[in-house]
UniProtKB/TrEMBL annotation:
The UDP-galactopyranose mutase C-terminal domain, residue ranges: 1-81
Organism placement in taxonomy: Bacteria, Pseudomonadati, Pseudomonadota, Gammaproteobacteria, Enterobacterales
UniProt-listed Pfam families: GLF
Name under which the protein is recorded: UDP-galactopyranose mutase
EC code(s) of this entry: 5.4.99.9
An MF annotation (GO) of this entry: flavin adenine dinucleotide binding
Length: 172
């Protein structure tokens, strides 16, 4: 179960017995996943967007297009963060492409999906102009094509300066 609320300190709870519902279980094991920033000695499990990475990705894509007998798939192979529903859909599509390549006696393509997607940054704020300004400044350094800011602050509207920040750097 995923939790996407600022009121809940963890992001996910998993109860392992549901991975094999056909089995009988005398007990169960649950764990809670807590989100935190990756630190110096940690192994990063999610992509960390860096300046210049899209140019480097374009070089990798050019090199990959010249390869034969290999197909790049999944999170690592296509350099994208994928949710599970997208992962499953792309795996099914790749299987279909593979079966078609066998019946038509054609080689598999290097990619079965586009890797040159545009990135959108979504920033959710709660009328905290100071933190939002710093976040937007850091986000502008990365290679996002769109920045969407959602203000979940009180209904009384944004604090003074909020609208000017949205217009800054032609975000909208």
């Amino acid at each position: 179960m995923n939790y996407c609320s600022v009121d809940v300190p963890y992001t996910r709870i998993t109860e392992h017995k549901y991975f094999s519902p056909w089995e009988q279980h005398d007990g169960s094991v649950c764990y809670k996943e807590y989100s935190r920033s990756c630190e110096e000695n940690d192994i990063p499990y999610y992509p960390i967007r860096q300046m210049g990475e899209m140019a480097l990705l374009e070089k990798y894509l050019s090199l990959a297009e010249n390869e034969t007998n290999i197909t790049f798939v999944g999170r690592l192979g296509t350099y994208r963060y994928l949710d599970m529903d997208v992962t499953i859909a792309e795996a099914l599509k790749t299987a279909e492409v593979y079966l078609n390549s066998l019946t038509e006696n054609q080689p598999m393509p290097v990619f079965t999906v586009s890797c040159t997607m545009k990135y959108t940054a979504l920033i959710v704020t709660f009328n905290r102009l100071g933190k939002l300004k710093k976040t937007v400044e850091e986000t502008l350094k990365l290679e996002f094509t769109n920045i969407v800011i959602v203000n979940n602050g009180p209904r009384m509207g944004p604090k003074p300066g909020f609208r000017q920040l949205l217009i800054h750097e032609s975000l909208y």
